[in-house]
Each structure stands twice: as C-alpha cells, then as structure tokens.
Amino acid sequence: MITIKQQQKDFYITGYSVHLRPVVYSDLEQLREWRNSAFVSKQMLDSQYISAEQQAAWFMKVSRDDSQYHWIVEYQGHCIGSTNIKARHVGERVHTAKELEPGLYIGDPDYQGNILAFAPTLAMYDFCFNELQTQSFHAVVKATNQAAIKYNQQLGYEIVSQQKLLELSLQKEAYERQTVMLKRLLSRTRQS
Amino acid sequence: MNNQQKLVDAFCEALGVAPDMVTDDLTYNTIKEWDSTAHMILIAELENTFDVMLDTDDIIDMSSVGKAKSILSKYDIGF
C-alpha cells in the first residue's frame, strides 16, 4: 500500500517504510559519492568515475527529460539511495510508456544487501503498474551480477535473453504474485 | 528447551544450516543460505517459535544472530 502526492510534474511516493522524493540539485554530491563507490559502481553497466561537472550536466539533462524520472530513497528520514525509471523506447514519455526500465542503488552501507533494498522498488513498481498503467519492466544486468539477478527474480522477473548481459522482463501479474510476502513484511506498523 | 536453543533451532530450520554455524556474528547476506528468501522464512520461524509479531523496522534491523537476540529481547524474550 503506497500513498502518492503530486506537485506539478513531481511525484512523492511513500510506502513499505520508505519515502521516494524527486532528486534535487543539493542531492548531487551525495549521489555522486555513492555512484563512484566500489560497491555501487561495480554493479553498473557503465562503471566509469563521474566528475562533479559530469554529475551537474547529467542533472541538467534529466531535469528536462520526460523519458526518465529519478527519486531519492529515504528511510527514517535519511537518504539511503536512489531509484529511477526510464521509458524503454526512444521518443516515449515515462508517464505514458508501456515498457519501463528500472534502476536502483542503495548507497548507504548500512542497508546494502538488506531486505530494505526491496522497499523502494516495491513502492516504485506499485506506482508504475497501478498509477501509470505500465505494462512491463525490462531490466538489463551483467551476467556476472548474481545478486542483481536474484534480486530481480525475487520480484518476479524472468530471464528473456542471456549473453554477456542478461535481459529480464517483469509483468504485473508475476510481480503481484511473487511479492506478497515481501510486501507484508515491509508494510507492518510499529506495535507500541 | 531454553530460548537460546529455540533460537538456534529456528535459524537451523529457516536457513538450513548446522547449529555450530549459528553464532552471534553470523550475518545476513554473508552466507548463501541467508538470502532475502531465507530471511522471510526466518522471520516467520522466529515469530512462530517465540509467539511474537515483529514490526518492519525490526525485520529490517535483524542483520545478524546477535541482532536477532537484542530485537527479541525488546519483546520480553530473555537469552
């Protein structure tokens, strides 16, 4: 169960113990630090070092680009990572595209490899499948990245192509079926 | 059976590991047996064993055997 707040073209999503808010300029240095860290960069298809100038240019580009959307992930009031969606096909807008490509990294070492890493994805996918009427997600990961492959399969993804890069696809029905237990565990409220 | 033994049994059952592996510093995601799927099974096993219902922050926080003990202590389970 998520709650969505819209301000102009921005979406704020809360659910599964996390809050997703749009990336703003003051987030860039934290994002760059995480993105350049060994833990995060080794998972990326492009693992080159990112300079402050490149990061600023990236932000200027994505701020005006309606084919992608980037959020900061907050847990208990602290930024722990970033998640994003991109329209899969050139020329499509993220709000109307039938197929999206997701991205996620957890930058805070306290939560890397933690079950909490599923929370931003659950919130974002619920938003996309139920609000944007997204039909499917398409993920591309390195064939050597077993953690990402397992993570995606846990969400209901199925492998559709397997070479140096692995392509996976997720339909709404599989996602709903596969994530029942995860959603239950990540949406409990404090007892006391 | 004391609570320490119950805890070890719950970990063995959920993760499929031998009792001697269940030490306080055994940590989530550092062995292949304790992945996210096993973690969900572990939560259910601990809740059934100790008759508690953990909240989400505790489930997220349960990153090791030692941490599991300190979290269960909040629910009046002594070790």
UniProtKB/TrEMBL annotation, chain A:
Keywords assigned: Transferase
Keyword Transferase appears in the UniProt entry: yes
Coiled-coil features, chain-numbered ranges: none
Domain N-acetyltransferase: 18-186
Source organism of the structure: Alteromonas pelagimontana
One function term, GO molecular function aspect: acyltransferase activity, transferring groups other than amino-acyl groups
PANTHER family: GNAT-FAMILY ACETYLTRANSFERASE, SPERMIDINE N(1)-ACETYLTRANSFERASE
Entry-linked PROSITE patterns: GNAT
Name of this protein: GNAT family N-acetyltransferase
Automatic annotation (TrEMBL), chain B:
Record domain Carrier: where: 5-66
Coiled coil: none
Record-given protein name: Acyl carrier protein
InterPro entries recorded: ACP-like_sf (IPR036736), PP-bd_ACP (IPR009081)
Source organism: Alteromonas pelagimontana
Domain of life from the UniProt record: Bacteria
Annotated Pfam families: PP-binding (PF00550)
